[in-house]
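User: My collaborator sent over this chain with a note saying "see what the structure looks like." That's all I know about it. Can you take a look?
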Amino acid sequence: MVTVAQMIAEAFLKVGVERVYGIIGTSILDLVDVMYDYKDRIDFVTTRHEQVAVSAADAEFRVKGKLAAAAVHAGPGFLNTAISLGIALRDRVPLIMVTGGVRRRLKGTEAWLEVDQGSIARALAKYYGRVDVPSDITSVLEEALKSALTPPFGPAVVEVPEDLWGSEAGDLSALEDLPRGPASLEGLGSEARTLASMLLEARKPVILACGELTLHPGFKQEDLLALAEVSGAYIVTSGNGRGACPEDHPRCLGRIGFGGGSVAADKAFESSDFVLVLGGELDDITTYAYTMLPQGEAIVVSVDPAVKKRPRLYEVYEAQPHKALKEILDEFRKISGGTVRKDEWDREVAGYVNMWNSMLESAASKESERANPNRFFKMLDSFMPRERIVSGGQGTHILYAYDYIRVYKPGSWLAATNLGAMGYALPAVIGAAKASPYSYIITVIGDGDLMMTAQDLETIVRERLDVKILLVNDDSYRVLYLRQVLQKRGRIYETLLGNPDFRMLAESFGFKYVRVERKDDEKKGLEALASKGPILVELKVDRDDVPPLNLEYTLRMSM
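Assistant: Without extra context I'll predict from the sequence alone. Here is the result:
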């Protein structure tokens, strides 16, 4: 017989969880005590905030396709996870969060640490289960894991009252039915031929690759490239779909939509007479609040129920995107007899690409004594190894990364795309560095974003993580500052910030520090980002600088 706490540890081993992120508290003290006996098999990583713990676990799956877990204290510890649960839910990322709960005899008495965790968790997670008797633990864990790992993925929350951890829960044979990895649902079947025919007949085909496609370990990048090449289609991606295709491939146009879309990708998408959407992100983000739509038909292949809640501007085929992709490729090869050339479409897209490249080059070539962030990011893209993992914050600063930093494979771009939350970028590189310790790992983060999670600089140093931080500092909440300039007649109010001395902050935690403020500093900053160990490079920028973006379409969203 094993206890409830031991059953959870054994379940983690059974399903391949290598790490638990969290913060100890009285309500999970007994669980952490049991984890001491598993420390050679499960790495317990203490963070300095529960938000960071959950988002680090989220990032592990995005990077490696392997489940990770978090463990947090009841009440305040649980409440601190709300943003991170929301990010994982909206971006459809699986993880397991175990939270303590008040003792059973005190439940419902407004006891110390008590909040209605169930009601909150049900709104922010795909699954919530509370263990009320010791023998429930195996069934709750099984349901939590199945829910998290069945597409569309999402976080699962398991609550265990403080008085249950040491209770006998049964024997380990009860864990035999736990899922060992992500479920794989049905493909298109005979309908694949219909979509292959539509792709063949289209004059201007586009494939939109979404996170639902790339997050599944069954996705093969070569299938997507092959379909684009044989059909004459161009690939565009959602924010979460970045890495579906190498962004230096001639058929890959990059991300579309608000907050970082490539103008070339936007123009091709809008001009298309047929869009095959692999995943559930034909939404307000990719379409600038439905103001940018293709000229022709759009077909969405997804198992995400969210696609049926949106304006019905498309037809939905309910199928697993990575399976549908392979089926459509096979059928296309059968009916086409070979590669299909669409020369007129190629010439049109080449014009969009040239226009976008000219915008990028013009911004990067501006000369001044001050550092040019566009030039710096362009040089950084060439400077970094191809095997890079980049996390991005939320704000105007991240447009430089979208514009100039290319992504080459799934799991190498991490961002809170669909919730749009600040506070994800730093936790994400902690999870990424743990999941893939030999990769080059960097976060591009704004000053406002960093200050929301700065306490976990200590976690990076304590865990000896080789993480680079590129801090783009404009001493403001620049997105809103620029909107006040452009849309509120320059009525600047509550968007300018007072920041710490980032050199002192970084060095106090044990980070190396380099400041890039002038053109002559740029090479020094790049060299610092190539060095080993944790380093923070502060890139000081003018808050009035607007990176290249599809400004016309961005402004449409506020009309």
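A starting point for your reply to your collaborator: Residues 270 and 293 are 5 Å apart (CA to CA).
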